[in-house]
Recover the amino acids of this structure.
């Protein structure tokens, strides 16, 4: 490990396609993740935003090796995660964890909260006495008192259950947590509490997060860097302040315009963005069929342009 490097995770040209149709003569694939590259520093939150089906969860699952990549590299603490020795693999598993969207389905209903939070410690062979201390510490760090440990998930509210999922995710003191839509199933006020908690864990424990959400508003509240994804491709990436202040890619502009002006009730739905009916093209810009700016030259794939500290996939920037 290079202790001087600020980079915790580096993803290079990561690609994944899924088989969607198979006949005798032909196999059809869907590109879920297409040549995605980014880095995440220690003690930072990188937000991945994009509409449903854009490949966000697939990126998270690839990084955690829950599914196999097709192409590209994933480097964690200077090591290629596909070339780890058995011992290194164990360390990787210990130093990475995940929080999912729906705590109703991600927590085992037959386990008490104590067992749920304790399980990763058992898997990693931590002795019983240390386990007890760590479980209590984790549940408190997640903002619940230890009386919750004797209860079952069904006794808890949605926000409390998500705190339990967070306690379980931090109990082994990981360096990276992949949070896949962790607030999407929660009410707005509870969402804010969970966002605050994630910020606190970043600041106080130095944990880095890959924070996945379809909601640019939420991503904007806690990310240092963001990455805007459309059909498996990065449209724009850079630091959160400059992207929110001055989006450069037409898709990022549309995402920002669909945010509620000042009241959640007025929230516009991404699905209500007017579709532009233009034919799909092979080999051109992936946003061509929906882009309000598209011209002839967009039938050729744009290259990533570096502008200040940003990268943008568009002919018009
Ligand atoms: N195991 C799979 N088999 C086939 N298609 C898949 C599989 N997993 C994901 N996909 C497809 O890949 C695309 C991206 O999915 P996903 O990463 O879940 O998107 P997101 O998290 O942004 O909503 C979707 O079109 C989805 O249907
Ligand atoms: Mg998803």
């Amino acid at each position: 490990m290079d202790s001087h490097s600020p980079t915790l995770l580096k993803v290079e040209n990561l690609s994944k396609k899924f088989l969607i149709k198979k006949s005798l003569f032909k196999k059809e694939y869907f590109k879920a993740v297409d040549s995605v590259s980014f880095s995440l520093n220690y003690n930072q939150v990188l937000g991945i935003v994009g509409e449903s089906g854009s490949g966000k969860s697939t990126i998270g699952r690839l990084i955690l090796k829950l599914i196999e990549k097709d192409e590209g590299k994933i480097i964690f603490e200077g090591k290629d995660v596909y070339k780890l020795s058995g011992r290194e693999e164990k360390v990787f598993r210990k130093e990475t964890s995940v929080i999912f969207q729906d705590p109703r389905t991600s927590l085992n209903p037959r386990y008490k909260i104590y067992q749920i939070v304790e399980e990763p410690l058992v898997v990693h062979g931590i002795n019983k006495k240390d386990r007890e201390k760590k479980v209590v510490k984790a549940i408190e760090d997640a903002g619940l008192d230890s009386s919750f440990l004797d209860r079952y998930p069904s006794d808890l509210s949605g926000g409390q259950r998500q705190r339990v999922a967070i306690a379980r995710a931090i109990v082994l003191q990981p360096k990276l947590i992949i949070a896949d839509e962790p607030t999407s199933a929660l009410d707005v006020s509870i969402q804010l509490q969970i966002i605050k908690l994630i910020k606190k864990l970043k600041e106080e424990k130095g944990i880095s997060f890959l924070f996945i959400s379809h909601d640019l508003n939420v991503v904007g509240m806690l990310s240092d860097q963001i990455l805007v994804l459309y059909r498996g491709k990065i449209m724009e990436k850079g630091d959160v302040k400059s992207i929110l202040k001055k989006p450069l890619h037409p898709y990022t502009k549309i995402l920002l315009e669909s945010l509620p002006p000042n009241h959640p009730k007025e929230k516009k739905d991404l699905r209500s963005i007017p579709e532009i009916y233009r034919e799909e093209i092979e080999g051109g810009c992936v946003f061509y069929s929906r882009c309000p700016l598209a011209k002839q030259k967009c039938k050729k794939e744009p290259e990533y342009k570096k502008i200040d500290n940003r990268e943008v996939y568009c002919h018009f920037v």
Notes: The chain has two domains: 7-231, 245-317. DSSP finds ten helices and twelve strands in the chain.
